[in-house]
Amino acid sequence: MNEYILIVDDESRMRKLIKDFLVAKGYNILEAEDGEQALQIFEEKADKINLILLDVMMPKLDGWSVLRQIRQNSKVPIIMLTARGEEQDELFGFELGVDEYISKPFSPKILVARVEAILKRTQGNNEKRKNYDGIEIDKEGRTVTVDGKAIELSLREYELLVYLIENENIALSRDKILMNVWNFDYYGDSRTIDSHIKKIRHKLGKKGKYIKTMRGVGYKFEVK
Amino acid sequence: MNEYILIVDDESRMRKLIKDFLVAKGYNILEAEDGEQALQIFEEKADKINLILLDVMMPKLDGWSVLRQIRQNSKVPIIMLTARGEEQDELFGFELGVDEYISKPFSPKILVARVEAILKRTQGNNEKRKNYDGIEIDKEGRTVTVDGKAIELSLREYELLVYLIENENIALSRDKILMNVWNFDYYGDSRTIDSHIKKIRHKLGKKGKYIKTMRGVGYKFEVK
DNA sequence: ATATTTATATAATTTTTTTATAAATATTAA
DNA sequence: TTAATATTTATAAAAAAATTATATAAATAT
């Protein structure tokens, strides 16, 4: 349960409405107010985003264009938000890889139901707890235990560790880590990541060695 | 752990498959091979049955009809078994009170995981009284006692505490808490939640420590 | 009237970032 | 290859920033 949903709509009121209901259901929300911003955000956080709610009518770049662009290299589930009367486009959309349509106005209940149905379908077996040679992450509780003993991690430490672990066996550059664990625009350079890595390693004790240093690149979580 | 699960499917092979896995997990199984039988069994044993696995396509009386009948006077959790491609019915189902969908073919692992998840969710909440290391909530009476001694909580305090406790071991964000305990959205960030937490902790005395602060996130109720 | 809820201000605490230096690793020249 | 040099990361401690706890006051509801 740590899914990210990108809401793309030019009306801030609409975004807020949707967001509130999804937040209440425990989803993390990203917002874009036009197509260009949507593409930009998606490019940065593609690996985090589990579903996109995409309005059709938008200034700058409409929903269809965004859809096409994203579909060039991603299969992320997309729900299109259409105004009533745009049904004739639906068939067209399915061919481009739309997963669902919801026509405005819609009840929040329906929206939530569809989102949950799709995520259930696509996520498949998304276990809440995972165990990596004794390092166990409980996402609901946001706690980490090592060999059954809880360790205390700060927010950033927790998120950094989870990010590394979710990308097990993948070398992650510092840039990528900053993009995903910190906020989009983060200027600070210095040894911030290193400091956190150090603390995490220390708190993991013997198992800290699973966080490998990839010299010149970044870090990698690898159990072996 | 003495839960009864009713499996409704016209294919005996399918029933056997599901049954074997659930029996292995320690559940008691009842079987029905069509909708009529399902209703009959449910009528007889309604108070014993904790969950129903219900196939949609069946002779005599299909899954939807069974669902509707049962929902007239029971909230028993129901998981619908659908053939692939019946997704469009899902929304319809949710409104009728379906708790989950599993589409065939499915892996037994997924089935078991969902069954367990639902039972955990529903069983926990069903009890009118629960005791968390001396903190006891009587939902009917809307009272809380600590080590047998009643404490006085205001409306918000009570609801906040119940919300935290019902989500035991789950880290709850401030947003989520606001949405669920205050049920309106809320501008400006004041320390309202914190104030209430403080008061609850104080009233819980020593046991106030079970409300953990999740820095950067929110709060979590955790007895340990 | 009284109790409850929310707002505000400040203190206390924790987290995050920066900084400086040491250590490790890689690169280059002899 | 070895030694010198450069680059990168590890580490610790200090500084800065962010978050929460708490008390009290104000607003609101009962």
Order of helices and strands of chain A: EHEHEHEHEHEEEEHEHHEE
Low-confidence segments of chain A, given as residue ranges, are none
Major sheet size, sense and barrel closure of chain A:
5 strands, parallel
Tally of individual helices of chain A: 8
**In whole angstroms, how far apart are the ends of chain A?**
27 Å
Structural class by sheet pairing and helices of chain A: alpha/beta
Number of strands of chain A: 12
Overall radius of gyration of chain A: 19 Å
CATH topology of the largest domain in chain A: Rossmann fold
Tally of individual domains of chain A? 2
Query: Would you state the CATH class of the largest domain in chain A?
Result: Alpha Beta
Oligomer type? homodimer
Coarse shape of chain A? elongated
Mean pLDDT over all positions of chain A: 85
Question: Could you give the order of strands across the largest sheet of chain A?
Answer: 2-1-3-4-5
| Proportion of helical residues of chain A | 25-40%
Structure description:
In chain A, strands 2-1-3-4-5 form a five-stranded parallel beta sheet, sandwiched between helices. The first copy, chain A, has helices at 12-24, 35-45, 63-71, 90-96, 108-123, 155-166, 174-181, 192-204; strands at 4-8, 28-32, 49-55, 78-83, 100-104, 129-132, 135-138, 143-146, 149-151, 172-173, 211-214, 218-221. The two termini of chain A are 27 Å apart. In chain A, strand 4 (78-83), helix 4 and strand 5 form a beta-alpha-beta unit. Chain A is of the alpha/beta class. The mean pLDDT of chain A is 85. Chain A folds into two domains: 4-123, Response regulator (Rossmann fold), CATH 3.40.50; 129-221, Winged helix-like DNA-binding domain superfamily/Winged helix DNA-binding domain (Arc Repressor Mutant, subunit A, Orthogonal Bundle), CATH 1.10.10.10. At the A-B interface, helix 1 and helix 5 of A face helix 4, strand 5, helix 5 and helix 7 of B. The structure holds a DNA duplex (30 and 30 nucleotides).
